[in-house]
Design goal:
The chain has 357 residues and is of the alpha/beta class. 32% of the residues lie in helices and 23% in strands. The chain has 10 helices and 17 strands.
């Protein structure tokens, strides 16, 4: 039986709680949040029994019944949270983005490696049913060798999201890619590799940023298709187009559009020398005399609502890694690679030249 600490009592923390509670080998023993009232409210809302509420992470982590922790705090707090947990030998799930600077990411990576704890960074779309199916098809050679992948993140992020107050700023959000578009960067890496348990390694990045929304107070709400004025402005560019060179020879393009006036979309394109995927539509020489797209009836990554995301599969994977003493394909060391692309893109905007990783 694994004792679980939930660090943070916000929107996504509730999904972590639900996933742990569905397992017979996990028990949530504590919730930590800077607000005692918020922690207690989540415990009561979810009907959690015999769960302690803390307001100091160090105190919560030192309890002997805590084996693992989900870090569900705002991204600028993740580094210190992870360093504390690793120092005390706790296994860790880290919400994305994992940190807000490359230096913090590397400190975290080195700390968990030295501690020997298991980590999973919450690039949860690796467990989305469509991406699971596409990854298996890649491993089975349905598309042959992938030479080009496109994954886009299209979502008008704004005040409708509870985390927007911090995420909209350069200091704590950094960029549209770091706040949310890193999901698409990671998915492009994942779908550019035919290795069932690995993502392709990025070696070079070139990127451009633009859009028209930065600094404006007029804001769209894609949840109810309305506009408001006097909203807190986004401090960085809302549009980023990122090109990646990958170590296996493939190329990838990611468009992050945080100002598109439309519902959320996460389009996927895979081009291989034996076939193509367009979202859940497949064309391949594997199917002789194919004369129309084969459509896979599955769940697409087509919602920004965290309740739509496959947290159960992610947490099941995390606990399996602990139980079987194996590293996750989505551990912190691998996640640093996806984050490095974000920071290389920021360097491109300054220098206007490709950046080698």
């Amino acid at each position: 039986m694994y004792g679980i600490l939930i660090n943070g009592a916000g929107w996504v923390a509730r999904q972590h709680c639900a996933a742990y509670r569905n397992r017979g080998d996990c028990r949530i023993v504590a919730v930590n949040d800077v607000s005692a009232e918020r922690a207690a409210a989540m415990v009561a809302e979810l009907g959690l029994d015999n769960v302690r509420c803390h307001t100091e992470l160090s105190q919560a982590l030192r309890q002997p019944d805590v084996d693992a922790v989900s870090i569900c705090t705002p991204q600028h707090l993740h580094c210190e949270n992870v360093l504390e947990a690793a120092a005390l030998g706790k296994h860790i799930v880290i919400e994305k983005p994992a940190a807000t600077t490359l230096n913090d990411l590397r400190r975290m990576r080195d700390a968990v490696a030295a501690a020997g704890v298991k980590t999973v960074v919450s690039f949860v779309l690796r467990w989305n049913p469509l991406l699971v199916t596409l990854k298996k098809m890649l491993a089975d050679g349905i598309f042959g060798t992938p030479y080009y992948v496109e994954v886009d993140y299209m979502s008008y992020n704004g005040s409708w999201w509870g985390g927007w107050k911090d995420a909209r700023t350069i200091e704590q959000g950094v960029s549209a890619s770091l706040v949310a578009g890193c999901h698409a960067i990671d998915a492009a890496r994942w779908l550019a590799s035919t290795d069932a348990n690995a993502a392709a390694l990025p070696t070079e990045v070139f990127a451009m940023a633009g859009g028209v929304r930065k600094g404006r107070t007029r804001e769209f709400n894609p949840m109810n298709n309305t506009w408001t004025d006097n909203a807190p402005p986004m401090e960085y560019d809302g549009l980023e187009v990122i090109l990646m060179e990958l170590a296996n020879g493939a190329k990838a393009k990611v468009c992050v559009n945080a100002e598109c006036v439309m519902p959320y979309r996460f389009p996927i394109r895979i081009f291989g020398d034996k076939g193509t995927a367009v979202d859940n539509k497949i064309w391949s020489e594997f199917f002789p005399k194919q004369n129309d797209w084969i459509e896979i009836p599955t769940i697409l990554p087509d919602s920004s609502n965290v309740s739509h995301h496959p947290f159960q599969a992610e947490i099941d994977h995390f606990i399996g890694c602990i139980t079987n003493n194996v590293e996750s394909h989505c551990n912190l060391a691998d996640a640093v690679r996806s984050h490095e692309v974000v920071f290389a893109a920021l360097e491109c905007y300054e220098k206007r030249v490709p950046v080698k990783l």
